[in-house]
Structures are given as C-alpha cells and as structure tokens.
Amino acid sequence: MDYKIRPQDFSQEMIESLDLIRDLLPQKPWVITDYAIGRAKERGISYASVEHSVQHGRIVEYQYVKNSERLLLRDDYGTCVSLDINNNVVITVYFNDPRDEHSTLDESNYLRGWQVKLLQAHYMMLQEEKEKKI
C-alpha cells in the first residue's frame, strides 16, 4: 500500500527517526537515476542544485511508494528531490516555488491523524528491519 505523510502529521517517533536519517544523508554516497537525470535536464535543474537539495533540503513529505521509503526534500531555492532512503537513490527532481502555499493540494493523497497512528507500527517495523541489516 502506497501512502504519503506530511511533516505536520509525523508521530514523535517518525520525527526522531527521520531527523537521524536526514542528518546522515550528506555523509552517505547517493546516486541519481537516469530518469532523474533526464527530468533535471528537461527542467533546467543542475546537478549542483540536486546535490544542494539532498544535503540541505527540508523534509516536505515522507512517502512509502513501490515498496520503498522516500523523502521529498526541498531546498530554499525550490529544488525538490524524491530520494529513496533505503538505497540512497534520487528518483526524480523538479522545481516548486518555495513560496508555494499549496492551496490546491489534494488532501486525500495524504494520511492524517488516526491513519498515521495505525501506520506508525508499520513504519517502526521497517526501521527495526533496517537496523538488523546494519
């Protein structure tokens, strides 16, 4: 089951875990898919902008898509990166104006409240599995 969660709906455990992952991102090697390279070229986004977003972008949402955990990161300049945090792979990149208030955001695409609490156990299980592999 694919889902997305915005930071305001993160549980405390998710915040702590994602903060740790976020802090370690700049220290780990990551790769960019051919798809993401193509999208960056198409959209006029430089490799340096992608790198800056990976290193300094804030978490805009957590995604569990196609059996992979992803963070959507956006830097202060608007470069957005979808990063598979299991494999440190940039999936895609795009630009979103950092002043965008997302007034047209479709809320039905995101889990909220009690739905997040139900999935918290699933998330923590994924983290425990990851730690066992280390």
Please outline the helices and strands.
Blueprint lengths: L2 E3 L6 H13 L6 E2 L1 H10 L3 H10 L1 E8 L2 E7 L4 E6 L4 E7 L18 H20 L1
Parallel strand pairs: 2-6
Antiparallel strand pairs: 1-3, 3-4, 4-5, 5-6
Task: Output the keywords.
40% helix; alpha+beta; 134 residues; single chain; 4 helices; six-stranded mixed sheet
Order of helices and strands: EHEHHEEEEH
Q: What's the domain count?
A: 1
Q: Largest sheet, order of strands side by side? A: 1-3-4-5-6-2
Please report the total strand number as a whole number. 6
Secondary structure category: alpha+beta
The level of helicity is 25-40%
Q: Assess the beta-strand content as a share of residues.
A: 15-25%
How would a textbook summarize the main sheet? 6 strands, mixed
Shape: globular
Q: What's the tally of helices?
A: 4
Give the end-to-end Cα distance, rounded to a whole number of Å.
25 Å
Low-confidence stretches: none
